Amino acid sequence: MRSMNPDTLARPEAETLPILIAPHRILKAKARRVAAADADIVRDLIPRMFETMYRAPGIGLAAPQVDVLLRLAVIDLQPDDKPAPIVLINPEIVALSKELATREEGCLSIPGQYAEVTRPARVKVAYLDREGSRREIEACGLLAACLQHEIDHLDGVLFTDHLSALKRNMIMRRLSKEQKLKAEA
Ligand code: K1U
Ligand code: ZN
Question: Parallel, antiparallel, or unpaired: how do β-strands 122-128 and 72-75 relate?
């Protein structure tokens, strides 16, 4: 077996996984915590999630988006085009700033749709890394938004849930139309 690329945590031979598209009941479900008994599944899933995210392309991916209801997510913002992979197992938000920030978000489960989302500007997250070591990360900017977006996925929350019903319905109608056209093509 070829080894894992230590830079990206992807494996060249890792198969990509199909990404669930909203509306889908799995995307609205709460994922369960990763337990010691899940070690083999998680070890196999991580490179496939990175490969799926890099190929999409995206900067994050949560396990429920690939039909796995576990509290696991991967992120890579690739600052300066250099890999900076983060594996989050059982992530928990331990602090959120009162200050808010608004930025445009997309979602691999809501392809082609973007909207301005307002969230706490800074976040502190506790999690286990892929070796099972306890870690904390403090973030602002895009990483803070991405951490909150991925943790939302683990609780069945989509970025559209942060919008008004009017904007949410508009995005979901547009997505449905575009998906139908894509299926017909
Ligand atoms: O979880 C997801 O659906 C992935 C999502 C993460 C995210 C994006 C923006 C703000 C918060 C969270 C995406 O990666 S959407 C695609 C995207 O943002 C992107 C794609 C290519 C290059 C750069 C960004
Ligand atoms: Zn998303």
Answer: unpaired
pLDDT of residue 14: 79
CA atoms of 75 and 147, how far apart (whole Å): 8
Cα of 150 to ligand 1 centre, how many Å? 10
Report which of 14, 98, 24, 91 is spatially closest to residue 60, judged by C-alpha positions.
Answer: 91
Q: How far is the CA of 149 from the centre of ligand 2 (A)?
A: 6
Cβ of 66 closer than 6 Å to ligand 1, yes or no, is: no
What pLDDT shows up at residue 3?
A: 43
The answer to whether the beta carbons of residues 161 and 172 sit under 8 Å apart is no
What would the two tokens of residue 8 be?
């990206």
pTM check: above 0.90: yes
